[in-house]
């Protein structure tokens, strides 16, 4: 049987947009045209056509917002949120992509893509005996089209991980046959289409009714045999149920002109022209290779074979003064990673080593500082070598492509393929999962030739982009940021990760058992309250089951999305006694799964956790942490704070925490040259009390109430994070007019702040990016938007990023300086963690005086040191940086 792929174009494009938007910043051309959704759409569609061997592919789109369904229900789909502004131009671009690739698409006035696809599928079923159909869509309405010859391809996550639904799979999922999908929709409704269905009838009840009575009409023919509240709900909702069923029914008799099915023949030249026009350089070779497979042509000419030698062991004759090295490991946590192969390139050639353990000459090569090495992700590389007991000289690694690319574009993610987004080459590397498989199917034991070719291709990318990236750093005036801050920080973070943090396993077990007991007690209470509503298998941790319980069975009011998140539940907490318990259960469950039982898998044989400090994941330059995330343990929630007791210092040391006091406000005062704020900090006065005096026109500090100080504090931090009159009125429970007056008084008191904020927005609008004191940049394309909310968000980024990013750079400079001085003074004390504006150390008792002195000095002088590193006038840095210190034998005792 030949397979035809029918694609719901709107559904796939929306899916592609949100998947890529959540993964990182919106991909745009150099002139600001958004292309992220089209990029993902093209990538997925060509991959799918290639992998699943389709005979032909057709795409259908919605043509307009109004269809024949609006004649039946005026507010059909009215509840849907507006299409994101940066997706709108991509609807036209995606059609251009299909035209350029010679993939046929249709749209028709008054009809939806569903109707066109439904019609095509029935034409194929009835007139094309040797064909079968697969429909790619996220719209579960399409399940009604399933037959023995037609199946649905449903993306489970993002635009990948597809699930194939036929008759059996549908029966297993919904316990109904395809013909009953419209009956199910009639009863349940669909908030996304603004179809109400029968109020109070959810999925379980609807399925039960259909199993007994067959159809919606069958239910109403037998309405007298249904009793109680359910009968009442069904009678009240009859008109809605029948209307929803009618609207949900796909029209499979649309007239479609020029519909023929023929073998796929993608136009490679047209496709390449399109990709280059929209600057999708990373797709050029990838899609070129796929087109060769799709068109069943010989694509060997498209693959550039890189020449290299496979070595059993290293020979020092191959060593050179300048080397490129790439060490492969695909384990998510590189602290547990396995080296799968090593590629090396220099003036003497390109080489691949499959195994290096026990290779003495290779260790000599790694240990020799004169043999300089450029790599991708020094920290990961060094960790893999150390954990494999391979000796090396850390300082022989002189270039980190991942960190360099991050400085140039913080929107980049930590993948070597993304180097091309910086330098726009046509090189291409396959995704790891293509070579090694994914999830449970991942396989490291692949053929050595396939593996070697793949690792060599990564090395080639590293080598080709090296000079281009260095030159770009210099031309963008960001080389100092890379060379003097980010690159030295890699070693600091490497040492922190290697040291790790000791875990008190007895305390962990105690808290785990206690929390589990609290969860079980809560569940017992909820089962008593809900004894008539739930069965013994009900899962209180399942949002789906909780949603069905609250809004289906109990019938509580909900928002359009029937959300069960914290904010939504807090709004209806007074309507049912179980909701408070659900909120408490959720909090305890997060503590248990994330911070207690969740931490157990991260404890190594040395009884420590070795978190990964991510240097290249945030837009502002701040560090993040994973495997496990130690930055996210709340200190505000008492139960979560208790979890900090599991982190303990060694027998001979104590934890010391050094935390910058109001660093972002101090940075704001300096960068904005706000004299009044500078004076407050210079004279060690209470900045919130001083602001309160000015806002409320008070003369004496004694008159300031705690409430007035709290309001001033909201202002002081709010100006950094985009304080609005609406937000302030919500925070302070005052009218918008009062909020506006407060804001006016505040800016009158600190006149230079508004001038500074306006200048930041203006500069970001002109330049296209916001910039820190150290020339760290973030693209702010939102400022060009015509959408008020999007542009407002851009304004907030333009103000926040220079302040928060400069604070992050100051912290990094302090860390590097402390690290160097500890080494220089032969101190055994060391840094173990960095959390927001705080650095945590383990300090030996006999070193505490000297260590504390070094830390405080380095942190207080870090802004001036930053000025020197990025070649600015340190004498212009007036602001005093203050540091708070606390100590303890565990993290709970800190602060």
From TrEMBL:
**What are the residue boundaries of the DNA-directed DNA polymerase family A palm domain, all occurrences included?**
640-847
Identify the CDD domains for this entry.
DNA_polA_I_Bacillus_like_exo, H3TH_53EXO, PIN_53EXO
Q: Which UniProt keywords apply?
A: DNA damage, DNA repair, DNA replication, DNA-binding, DNA-directed DNA polymerase, Exonuclease, Hydrolase, Nuclease, Nucleotidyltransferase, Transferase
Question: Superkingdom of the source?
Answer: Bacteria
Give me any GO biological process, just one.
DNA-templated DNA replication
Q: Where is the signal peptide?
A: none
Domain 5'-3' exonuclease residues, every copy:
2-262
Which SMART domains does this one have? 53EXOc (SM00475), HhH2 (SM00279), POLAc (SM00482)
Q: Which reaction does it catalyse?
A: DNA(n) + a 2'-deoxyribonucleoside 5'-triphosphate = DNA(n+1) + diphosphate
| Top EC group | transferase
Q: What EC numbers are recorded for this enzyme?
A: 2.7.7.7
Q: Which GO terms describe its molecular function?
A: 5'-3' exonuclease activity; DNA binding; DNA-directed DNA polymerase activity
Q: Which family does it belong to?
A: Belongs to the DNA polymerase type-A family.
Its biological purpose is as follows: In addition to polymerase activity, this DNA polymerase exhibits 5'-3' exonuclease activity.
Q: Could you tell me which NCBIfam families the record lists for this protein?
A: pola, PRK05755.1
What is the protein name stated in its UniProt record? DNA polymerase I
Species source reads Mesoplasma tabanidae
């Amino acid at each position: 049987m030949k397979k035809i792929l029918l694609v719901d174009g709107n559904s796939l494009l929306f899916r592609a947009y949100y998947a890529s938007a959540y993964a990182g910043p919106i991909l745009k051309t150099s002139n600001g045209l958004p292309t992220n959704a089209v990029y993902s759409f093209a990538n997925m569609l060509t991959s799918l056509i290639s992998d699943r061997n389709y005979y032909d592919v057709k795409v259908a789109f919605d043509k307009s917002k109004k269809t024949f369904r609006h004649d039946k229900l005026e507010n059909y789909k009215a509840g849907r949120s507006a299409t994101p502004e940066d997706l709108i131009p991509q609807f036209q671009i995606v059609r251009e992509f299909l035209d350029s690739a010679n993939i046929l698409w249709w749209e028709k006035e008054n009809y939806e893509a569903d109707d066109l696809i439904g019609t095509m599928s029935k034409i194929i079923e009835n007139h094309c005996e040797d064909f079968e159909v697969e429909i790619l869509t996220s719209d579960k309405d399409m399940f009604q089209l399933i037959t023995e010859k037609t199946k649905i391809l449903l993306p489970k996550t993002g635009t990948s991980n597809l699930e194939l639904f036929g008759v059996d799979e549908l029966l297993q999922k919904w316990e109904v046959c395809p013909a009953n999908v419209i009956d199910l929709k009639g009863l349940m409704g669909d908030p996304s289409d603004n179809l109400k269905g029968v109020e109070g009838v959810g999925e379980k009840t609807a399925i039960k009714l259909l199993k007994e009575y067959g159809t919606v009409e069958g239910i109403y023919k037998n309405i007298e045999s249904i009793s109680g509240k359910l009968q009442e709900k069904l009678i009240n909702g009859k008109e809605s149920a029948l209307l929803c069923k009618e609207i949900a029914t796909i029209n499979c008799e649309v007239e479609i002109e020029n519909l023929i099915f023929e073998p796929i023949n993608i136009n490679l030249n047209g496709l390449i022209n399109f990709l280059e026009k929209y600057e999708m350089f990373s797709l050029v070779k990838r899609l070129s290779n796929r087109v060769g497979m799709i068109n069943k042509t010989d694509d060997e000419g498209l693959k550039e074979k890189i020449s290299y030698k496979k070595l059993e062991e290293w020979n020092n004759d191959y060593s050179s003064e300048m080397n490129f090295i790439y060490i492969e490991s695909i384990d998510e946590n590189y602290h547990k990673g396995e080296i799968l192969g090593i590629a090396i390139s220099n003036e003497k050639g390109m080489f691949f080593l499959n195994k290096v353990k026990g290779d003495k000459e290779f260790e000599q090569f790694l240990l020799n500082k004169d043999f300089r090495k450029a790599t991708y992700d020094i920290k990961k590389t060094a960790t893999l070598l150390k954990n494999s007991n391979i000796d090396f000289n850390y300082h022989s690694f002189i270039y980190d492509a991942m960190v360099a690319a991050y400085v140039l574009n913080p929107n980049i993610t930590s993948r070597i393929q993304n180097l091309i987004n910086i330098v726009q080459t046509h090189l291409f590397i396959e995704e790891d999962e293509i070579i090694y498989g994914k999830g449970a199917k991942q396989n490291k034991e692949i053929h050595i030739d396939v593996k070697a070719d793949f690792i060599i291709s990564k090395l080639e990318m590293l080598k080709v982009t090296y000079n281009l990236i260095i030159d770009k750093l210099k031309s963008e005036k960001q080389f100092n940021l890379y060379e003097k801050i980010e690159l030295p920080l890699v070693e600091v973070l490497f040492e922190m990760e290697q040291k790790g943090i000791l875990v008190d396993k007895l305390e962990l077990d105690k808290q785990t058992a206690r929390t589990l007991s609290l969860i079980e007690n809560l569940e017992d209470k909820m089962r008593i309250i809900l004894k008539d509503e739930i069965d013994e298998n009900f899962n209180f941790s399942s949002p789906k089951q909780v949603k069905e319980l609250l809004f289906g069975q109990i019938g509580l009011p909900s928002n359009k999305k029937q959300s069960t998140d914290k904010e939504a539940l807090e709004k209806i907490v007074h309507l049912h006694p179980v909701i408070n318990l659900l909120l408490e259960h959720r909090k305890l469950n997060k503590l248990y799964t994330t911070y207690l039982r969740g931490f157990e898998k991260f404890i190594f044989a040395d009884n420590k956790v070795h978190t990964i400090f991510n240097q290249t994941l945030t837009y502002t330059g701040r560090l993040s942490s994973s495997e496990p995330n130690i930055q996210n343990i709340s200190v505000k929630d008492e139960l979560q704070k208790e979890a900090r007791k599991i982190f303990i210092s060694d027998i001979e040391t104590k934890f010391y925490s050094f935390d910058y006091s109001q660093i972002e406000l101090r940075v704001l005062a300096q960068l904005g040259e706000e004299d009044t704020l500078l004076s407050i900090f210079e004279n060690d006065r209470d900045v919130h009390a001083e602001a309160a005096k000015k806002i409320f026109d008070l003369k004496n500090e004694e008159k300031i109430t705690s409430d007035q100080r709290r309001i001033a504090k909201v202002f002081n931090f709010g100006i950094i994070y985009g304080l609005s009159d609406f937000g302030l009125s919500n925070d302070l429970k005052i009218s918008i007019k009062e909020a506006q007056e407060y804001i006016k008084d505040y800016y009158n008191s600190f006149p230079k702040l508004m001038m500074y904020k306006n200048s930041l927005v203006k500069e970001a609008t002109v330049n296209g990016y916001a910039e820190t004191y150290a020339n760290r940049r973030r693209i702010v394309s939102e400022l060009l938007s015509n959408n008020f909310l999007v542009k407002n968000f851009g304004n907030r980024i333009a103000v926040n990023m220079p302040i928060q990013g400069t604070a992050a750079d100051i912290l990094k400079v302090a860390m590097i300086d402390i690290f160097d001085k500890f080494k220089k003074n032969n101190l055994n004390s060391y840094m173990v963690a960095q959390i927001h504006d705080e650095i945590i150390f383990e300090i030996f008792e006999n070193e505490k005086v000297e260590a504390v002195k070094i830390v405080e000095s380095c942190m207080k002088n870090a802004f001036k040191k930053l000025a020197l590193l990025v070649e600015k006038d340190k004498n212009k840095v007036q602001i005093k940086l203050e540091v708070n210190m606390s100590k303890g034998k565990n993290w709970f005792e800190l602060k």
